Design the sequence.
């Protein structure tokens, strides 16, 4: 009996220890199974669509929505290092792929970047003005009465060789008589043997002649006076230049004083055009620059002139600088105070040039979408220079021969935001990689489809139902 107890107790202990060990082994195996399954799930390669990231499959194929080839889905552990292949795939997240159908629907067009000469056109408004160097006033050189006017109205054309009026002046008649007496005395005294007497006669003639010239009498008139031997009752008044009467102040029979204005004359064969250039554009203009003038009164008939002067001050109300353009006025077609349009062409030299529609201004930087491969677009930061109506100068960021999107760029940019989510910062277009999504996360801006992929613990958000007969959803890994 005692022997049986000695055998039974150790045997029971051994059996209990064996049962405890087996139970512990089974428990450890059961706990390791989920981790093994999870690791296997992590090691399994998945595929997704670059345009529709919620499409997830476990084998290669095409997207059931757009028909594009599926790409490998990046499954990088949080805090772990990515492989070279994963980094290359992460770089491609900043790119946007478009199928031929999508390009047509989005109206995406591309052009090759060229290095060409660019000319900037500055459009400005101007006003036709009198050429101030070709204006004059006809004044009375002596007090008297206007006996006759040869010009009776504004707009008459006058010549400097023809008198515009005749004035009667007693002072002028007396001065003419003095001159005639001086000439007679000179002729009488020139044969005197005394040199002082003969020279005195010449001095009297010169003094009388000087007084006549101060009254506005020309030398030719003085010669005629000396030849005739009698004074002229009326003195002809001439204009200093040929032109058009723009103002008439006198009437026939009116008395005038010395220095009083009779007419204003302007030569309109040449005119000024004062153009107003905005302060951000006037550094591009300079003296001698060719300017094209267009008037609504003469459509299709441009005029040409050159910048002769740039005013050294700015108009504080219009924020413009005036530039004076001197130009011929054939047929006097341009009238003073007429509004015209001025086109100033500024050569900017040879550089990289793209259409204005190719550049997207984000506020902080300028971005273009470059087609590196057929259907594959990447964002590129560029530095822009001068702009014209339809072209822009690129200082850096592009090379000749590259293709850029000139239409549909904003749609490509929007698609990039939908695809990239938190990985693509719109304010920092670099054309580089986006941060890959870690396990258990979905890219920001996208929603996890209903059901979720095995190993993802995020709550599922139901996708909107597809239209009947348009999309097969049974082959998606949702």
Sequence:
């Amino acid at each position: 009996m005692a022997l049986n107890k000695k055998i039974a107790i150790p045997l029971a202990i051994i059996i209990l220890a064996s049962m405890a060990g087996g139970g512990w082994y089974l428990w450890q195996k059961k706990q390791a199974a989920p981790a093994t399954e999870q690791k296997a799930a992590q090691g399994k390669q998945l595929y997704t669509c670059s345009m529709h990231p919620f499409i997830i499959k476990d084998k290669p194929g095409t997207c059931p929505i757009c028909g594009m080839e599926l790409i490998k889905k990046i499954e990088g552990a949080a805090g772990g290092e990515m492989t070279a292949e994963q980094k290359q795939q992460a770089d491609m997240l900043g790119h946007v792929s478009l199928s031929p159908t999508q390009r047509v629907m989005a109206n995406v067009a591309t052009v090759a970047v060229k290095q060409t000469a660019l000319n900037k056109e500055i459009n400005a408004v101007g006003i036709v003005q009198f050429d101030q160097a070709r204006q004059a006033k006809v004044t009375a050189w002596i007090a008297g009465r206007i006996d006759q006017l040869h010009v009776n109205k504004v707009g008459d054309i006058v010549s400097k060789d023809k008198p515009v009026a005749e004035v009667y002046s007693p002072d002028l008649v007396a001065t003419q008589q003095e001159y005639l007496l001086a000439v007679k005395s000179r002729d009488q005294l020139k044969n005197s043997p005394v040199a002082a007497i003969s020279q005195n006669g010449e001095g009297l003639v010169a003094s009388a002649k000087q007084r006549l010239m101060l009254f506005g009498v020309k030398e030719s008139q003085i010669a005629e006076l000396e030849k005739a031997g009698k004074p002229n009752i009326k003195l002809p008044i001439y204009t200093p230049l040929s032109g058009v009467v723009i103002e008439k102040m006198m009437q026939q029979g009116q008395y005038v004083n010395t220095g009083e204005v009779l007419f204003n004359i302007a030569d309109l064969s040449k005119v000024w055009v004062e153009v107003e250039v905005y302060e951000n554009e006037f550094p591009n203009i300079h003296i001698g620059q060719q300017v094209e003038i267009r008037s609504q009164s003469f459509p299709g008939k441009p005029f040409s002139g050159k910048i002769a002067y740039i005013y050294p001050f700015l108009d504080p109300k219009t924020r413009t600088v005036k530039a004076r353009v001197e130009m011929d006025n054939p047929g006097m077609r341009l009238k003073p105070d007429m509004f015209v349009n001025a086109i100033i062409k500024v050569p900017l030299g040879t550089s990289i040039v793209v259409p204005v529609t190719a550049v997207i201004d984000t506020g902080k930087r300028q971005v273009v979408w470059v087609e590196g491969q057929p259907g594959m677009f990447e964002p590129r930061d560029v530095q822009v220079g001068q702009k014209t109506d339809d072209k822009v100068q690129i200082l850096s960021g592009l090379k000749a021969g590259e293709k850029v999107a000139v239409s549909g760029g904003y749609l490509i940019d929007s698609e990039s935001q939908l695809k990239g989510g938190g990985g693509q910062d719109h304010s920092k277009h670099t054309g580089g990689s986006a941060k890959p999504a870690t396990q258990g996360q979905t890219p920001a801006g996208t929603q996890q489809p209903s059901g979720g992929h095995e190993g993802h613990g995020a709550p599922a958000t139901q996708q909107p139902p597809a239209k009947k007969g348009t999309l097969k959803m049974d082959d998606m890994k949702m």
User: Anything to note?
Assistant: Residues 76-82, 421-478 have pLDDT under 50 and may be disordered. DSSP finds seven helices and 24 strands in the chain. The two ends are 70 Å apart (CA to CA).
